[in-house]
Amino acid sequence: MIIRVGLIGGDELVRRGLESMLRTLGGFELGSFKDRMREPIDIAPIETFGTPLDDTTLSRAVADPFIRRVAVFTWNHHPGLVDDVLGDGVSGYLGKSLTATQLGRALRSIHLGEAVVAPPLGGHPVSGPPVPSEADILTTRERETLGLIATGRSNDEIAQEMQISLNSVKSYIRSAYRKTGVQSRSQAVLWAVSHGVRADVLERA
């Protein structure tokens, strides 16, 4: 079964990042709203950050007969907004800090008809199975590599710091990018910072 996801709003970086994350998961595809009458959208994540108070995008999406579920997808993820968002046909409140695996779990739960808040906020536990932390997604070496990337080190410097070969560094970067859904070094830095991945993880592990 393929779950068709159609992003409403968001810039090109967000769109491409979401598409990459869905591709790594399998079982999802980024649908086109132009074709939704022929191929309905299963879940429409909507970026609401920065939109005016009288914006009707959410209500119009909920009312669209060719969109089955609607979820908010935003960096502005905090408890004060959840109750204002959920209900009235909106099925999810999703933070952009979610990893690919976390996002996949949340989207599948929404597809099954559950109301989902992810990552969980006080008083609003996420539906479905427990969402893994980044420690469950990346190996220690992959986390160490991302942590060093976040400090601005080059691949050569990372190899020296970790006392491994340059090829090993590249291998860790490829596997970490695949698991987190990032596509560039700048995205990797943002992911590492937002998930608290530090360069000293080996000392703490």
From TrEMBL:
PROSITE patterns, alphabetized: HTH_LUXR_1, HTH_LUXR_2
SUPFAM superfamilies per the UniProt record, alphabetical: C-terminal effector domain of the bipartite response regulators (SSF46894)
UniProtKB keywords: DNA-binding
InterPro entries: Sig_transdc_resp-reg_C-effctor (IPR016032), Tscrpt_reg_LuxR_C (IPR000792), WalR-like (IPR039420)
CDD domains recorded: LuxR_C_like (cd06170)
A Pfam cross-reference name: GerE
Domain HTH luxR-type, chain residue ranges per copy: 131-196
Protein name: Response regulator transcription factor
Biological source species: Nocardioides furvisabuli
